[in-house]
Every structure is written in structure tokens, then in C-alpha cells.
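2024-03-11 09:14:02 DEBUG pipeline.ingest accepted 1 chain
2024-03-11 09:14:02 DEBUG pipeline.ingest length=251
2024-03-11 09:14:03 DEBUG pipeline.predict start
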Amino acid sequence: MSWSVRLATMAIALAIAGNAWAGDEKPQKMPAGGVADPAGRVGYWPNSAGGIEALELSTGKLRWSAKDTNQPVLADADRLFALVAVLDKINQARIIALDAGKGQRSFESKPIEFPEWVRIAVARGHSFKTVVRLEKDKLLLTWEARAWYDRGAEPSEEEGKKARKNAAGIFQIDLRSGRVDSVKGLGQAMPDDLKSVTVGELVLTVNVGEPARVKEPSVELRARTLQATDAAGNIIWTHQIAPRVEFLPLK
């Protein structure tokens, strides 16, 4: 093996090691857009009112709810980090931190600006994903956005090509000053959507209901219920979370 290959291999290994969470416990990704603290005691999910709710995972008890945002991205023992849209700027957001005890806002970053076509909220013909890592007093946000033609009639080759977009990157957020910098490096892979997850002796799953039409005729909402069961399959608790948005084909 040449030295150049060895050095490249070492660099990749170090980058992967840098992605590791300090200690044995890591923040946990939950189904349906939720996250949990490293110990698996508290989980955070978007609710049907457009906010976030904190639930005790052992009992399903509601600890608190907040109206600031409905996009939790990471939790440690003391804070929940979430993405909140900038008012009237559909391609901009901030990272905020909410106190794990009461849900009070304790931090707000400077605006994070994504490409003009990116939609941070759920939108027709768009997708937006993030994965976040905490490194001492820095938060690293890896993001991926896509856009495609979804306007009903079959697009022309030119229309389809113009609508197709794909971008990704990494932002570093300083948790002391709120400063945001675009950085280069090895980003984290986007996690798959989880169907279920085991926390302690409980298995958390999400049940999706029948579609319900809303005022917008091309949109349907499916109610989602978070369910915790024990090893024997007994339901320990349930809790309704934010519905799933589905876009119907345009005519």
C-alpha cells in the first residue's frame, strides 16, 4: 500500500472517529421525526399544533410543549436543539436550544441561509433532511435538499430538467456566539426513516391512520399515534403526534 493511500485511509478513519459521540451514550433518533436524550429518558416530537412536545419515554407523560418550532434535530441531557424557520424567509432557518426541564429557549443562532430554491418546511416537490452532531461548543449540521417537478401534467424535458435540483452541505454553529459558518469536510450520512426503536424495555412504533382531506384539495393528512409496548406486546402508553402530510397528484 502506498503512503498516499495510507494517509488517505488514516484521514478517513480520523474523520469517522470525529463523528463519534463522547462517551458511551449517544443522542437517539426516534420514529416520525423525533429525537431522544442519550439516556433514553425523554423524547421530543412535533405535535399537531405546530410545536414540539417532550414526553417521558417510560410512561408517555407530557413534560412540556413549546410553540417555537416543530423540527427537533438533537437532544443531550440538558437541551433540545431544533430548527426554526426565519419569518418570511422560506430558505432560511436558525438553530435554537430549549431547556430540557421546562422547554424555555436558551439559545438562538444567527440565520442559516440555504440555496434560494430550498424549502425547509414540508412542501410539494421538495425534500429537506438534516443530521446534527454536537462537538463541545459547536453544532455541526449536515443537510441535503432536493427538488423535482410535481405540478400535475407531464413536464416537458426542459421543465423537468429545470425543476430538478440537488444540494448538500455542512454548517457549523457556534453555541457561544451563535455564529454560523459553512464548512467543508466529511458529513454524516442521512439516516433512514425509522419504523420502530427499542428504548430500555419498551418498543416505540408509530401507527398511521386513514387519510383526511384538508382545505387544500391536493393535500391529505394522516393522523399518527406514538405507541409504546413491552416485550409481551402489551400497550403501555399511546400519544398522538403531528400528522403526516401527503401531497396528491395535481390534475
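2024-03-11 09:14:41 DEBUG pipeline.report Residues 92 and 113 are 5 Å apart (CA to CA).
2024-03-11 09:14:41 DEBUG pipeline.predict end
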